[in-house]
């Protein structure tokens, strides 16, 4: 995937409501406008990288891109699990991510427990990969220092999509 690392940001929107409730693994969802602008060589699957909410701290993340076969989604999504415990939801905030590497393709599972186990394995793999020096350095990329604050509720911010900078 020539487009990795891939940098993007957008407003966190409400997703399907399954991450926290069914899986116990909360996710932040990007709007369609961000999903639709992914480069063609970024295939569906599970990715790892770095994420920042607003102008906050930068944390490790895993991201699912695709149709989530277990749930048989009809709409492609980008669901980011930031590997950090937040005190509250951050819908409407700006999420900035750099997708650093690819873990595996999407697949369906026979049970919810098998899906949860796979996601937890992905999280552990992301932690290991992101501790490697060449991936760790992206945590301090100037992309994150230029992350915008959440726009005031009365305005509508267009998502920012960028690769390189």
Features:
165 residues; 27% strand; 22% helix; disordered C terminus; alpha+beta; 7-stranded antiparallel sheet; single chain
Short characterization:
By secondary structure, the chain is α+β, with helices and mostly antiparallel strands.
Any overview of this molecule?
This protein has 165 residues and is an alpha+beta fold. 22% of the residues lie in helices and 27% in strands. It has helices spanning 19-23, 32-35, 112-130, 133-136, 142-145; strands at residues 6-11, 28-29, 45-53, 58-66, 77-82, 94-104, 160-161. The chain is globular. Residues 150-165 have low confidence and may be disordered.
Please give the structural blueprint.
Elements: E1 6-11, H1 19-23, E2 28-29, H2 32-35, E3 45-53, E4 58-66, E5 77-82, E6 94-104, H3 112-130, H4 133-136, H5 142-145, E7 160-161
Antiparallel strand pairs: 1-6, 1-7, 2-5, 3-4, 3-6, 4-5
Radius of gyration (CA) equals 15 Å
Strand order across the largest sheet: 2-5-4-3-6-1-7
Secondary structure: number of strands = 7
Helical content, roughly? 10-25%
Order of helices and strands: EHEHEEEEHHHE
The averaged pLDDT comes out at 86
Main sheet specs = 7 strands, antiparallel
Structural class designation: alpha+beta
Count of runs of 4 or more consecutive helical residues: 5
What is the overall shape? Answer: globular
Strand content: 25-35%
C-alpha termini separation: 18 Å
Low-confidence runs (pLDDT<50, min 5 residues)? 150-165
